[in-house]
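Quick one: structure tokens for this chain, please?
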Amino acid sequence: MKIEVWSDFVCPFCYIGKRRLEHALDNFENKEKVVVEYKSYQLDPNAKHIPGKDFYETFSELKGMPLEQVKAMNQQIGEQAKTEGLTYNFDTMKYANTFDAHRVAKYAEEKGKGKEVTERFLHAYFTESKLMSDFEILISLAEEVELDKDEVRDILESNRYAKAVREDINVARQIGVQGVPFFVFNEKYAVSGAQPEEVFTQVLSKVWEEESKKPILQSLNPNKSETSYCTDEGCNIEK
């Protein structure tokens, strides 16, 4: 089974959804036959770090939302993250463009380190408040997962892997991705949002048993469950 996951390194529900999928896979009896592949997506292609402004201020101005509303929303998201063993430090988080980080992730995938880089980058942004558009930070993080720092520097100082990142984003548009995380199982079954672990468990079993019988991409989101996802307009919690 192949699972493709469209996500962004600054998407809070992407990290939560990643962890929930991993927990479901831990208890899936056929997990050794499952391959998870992370795809690039940008919530804000025009994102830019503004020195002197914290995450709340930047997000508030960009989205036209009251500052207190932004803080309350992120506090709620942070509580959800805690239930998955994740720590989100919104107070010190740095709003940033992730295109170059995605380019490094593409290189990492080529070298068999895609999963490691994805986890390291997410943790660096949400827990350690790293500036994910800073070349020196990206090089250091890549080196931690045993990637060649000189090669990573060369990638960042060139345009390498930009095409691969854009291709992922274009495919997302073509298949109707409107928010992330977005999970596609065997190129046929779609699940959007950071669904609860039990939903992923159900989907894994269903896909394993029925995937050969379904000819088209179909949504396996439950009709009545909480769906958490992020779009370029912000992150949402729906009932």
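DSSP finds nine helices and seven strands in the chain.
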